[in-house]
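Re: export button greyed out
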Amino acid sequence: MANTLYDKLWNQHLVDARQDGSALIYIDRQLIHEVTSPQAFEGLRLAGRKPWRLDSNIATPDHNVSTDPGERSGGYEALKDETSRIQLQTLDNNCDEFGIAEFLLNDRRQGIVHVVGPETGAVLPGMTVVCGDSHTSTHGALGVMAMGIGTSEVEHVLATQCLVTKKQKNMQVRVEGVLGFGVTAKDVVLAVIGEIGTAGGTGYAIEFAGSAIRDLSLEGRMTICNMAIEAGARVGMVAVDDKTIDYVRDRAFAPTGDNWDRAVEAWKQLHSDEGARFDRVVELDAAQIEPQVTWGTSPEMVASVGADVPSPQDFDQEVARKGVQRALEYMGLKAGTPIGEIPVDRVFIGSCTNSRIEDLRAAAEVVRGYRKADSVKQAMVVPGSGQVKHQAEAEGLHHIFIDAGFEWREPGCSMCLAMNADKLGEGEHCASTSNRNFEGRQGFGGRTHLVSPAMAAAAGVAGNFVDIRAWEKKS
Amino acid sequence: MKALKKHRGLVAPMDRANVDTDIIIPKQYLKSIKRTGFGVNLFDQLRYLDEGWPGKPLEDRQPNPEFALNQDRYIGASVLLARENFGCGSSREHAPWALEDFGFRVVIAPTFADIFYNNCFKNGVLPLELPAQLVEQLFQAMYEQPGYQLTVDLEEQQVLTDEGESFSFDIDAFRKHCLIEGLDDIGLTLQSADRIKEYEQQRRTEAPWLFDVISKGAI
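Workaround output, generated via the alternate export path:
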């Protein structure tokens, strides 16, 4: 029988199919961070349980860490926010008590879990991966069945190495053709969400396929799978190809010797078979996708950079009209305003969507030789991990940012969710490479516009959104 | 976990689509390492006019008089009536914790986001899907009748109005069973411990690289 990639990963991890339609799925790797784990560890303690398989877990703090170089260098003692410090120390204490490996706050391998997993080889093709974070879908870029879970499930996986779940339906999102100059993985995924809506993928596992996806680097594929959840899908995936195998080779936790050869053989099967059946197929023409900018408070409220902010009257349904009306009020935007005329107060380049080395290179290329616009209060570059930061510094990218008046920060989730001090002020517009433009997401009353790293960088220089395809790069 | 067999309660509205978990409980409250105490900050950005943070005294907060849950007629509500794609976004279980802590036991909507839907069942909250047209009808009835109550019978899978109407809903058998009995599903899964070990042993032979150790001492 012809199987989809998702079918294959599901079948390989099926421990028990129950009569009521639920299933026990074996989890190969759990990634743990400070925000969604304390109550899970507490649950284990209260029930007197131990983790089932210690060596499948790996932890690192990310959501709540300071990205301020001064504050960070002082370790926990220097952290100004006491509740944050307690949460971070609780992670360390729990990992010590239960014996779980952790990349500590100022270890070079610390970073955003979804950057750290692939770059250390802790996440490998063919695995099932979970984390108490919805952007766990990121890891699907390596041909992995990865999904975000709640804290009760974090505890469940710790205690049993399994997840009780139901099989999702199969969706294929096929992007064929060649992306235009200046159009990136971020624009592709925003265009997909614009097409199917934020609930379009609910109940599905999405496999991203087609020549435009195959042409992307692994980092680009991670950006795409990362935002599968913004289309409603818990799982996003891309089939394994030579690029995947090259990416994994020589990573710290990648298999070696005979195990490597055996693994590669197995990984080469991780694609949908010819004739495999999908419950839904969505097709996009790569050549039609333009640089995208969100204008509202849901990732589906997105338009091409050359478009105007839409009017509620453009929508058929009453609930949608009301939603758009409310979004425009919150965003302080008038229908019909050209996207390019929206002023930008802050710029955030970072997050599990866009904080990898290729993202920073793309932003640096735009910024090189320019200065941040005076009207932009702050432009922040937050590398996804210590390793990304180190690599960027080895390439001199930090000098390009600093010379342009951009801030060069320590790794963490930062202003993507604004749990720490990195946040927007009320009413401020932000060009952000993150994944959610929800009300208040980046700060109380803050107004987020999701864009690619190059588009965010250009907005920081220009003070408003500009079409990156017309950008004059300096060498 | 609190069991839920049958529940009757006052209905309150959350009349907008795509309510995300950031709206249900904003991130600044996620610094807590506890499971309780989130109810006072449920829908914080909509419920209060001022910016909230953990530990801010309630007397310093300015409730938004236009927000439904601040209005007398909805005080004591335990059934939340909502729109499409409720609970989208972040996987934070703090969202159902906040709903439960506030006093909600049932959320009715045309559709829910997957992770939130799942998280509710772990916390004694029933997310209940009804067709959009029916939800619209319930919204109208609720707005027209102060004190509007609904009864949810999970065993019979019925929503009952005081006028004697009943609407059936779907729910999968396992989740229904756990919620009715208030079961801890870790205990249930551990009943399959032998099966898990058997699977693990077989996988270790087939795919040993998946069991390469990441140990605390080795990193």
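Residues 169-239+263-288 of chain A form a domain with the Aconitase; Domain 2 fold (CATH 3.40.1060.10). The button fix ships in the next patch.
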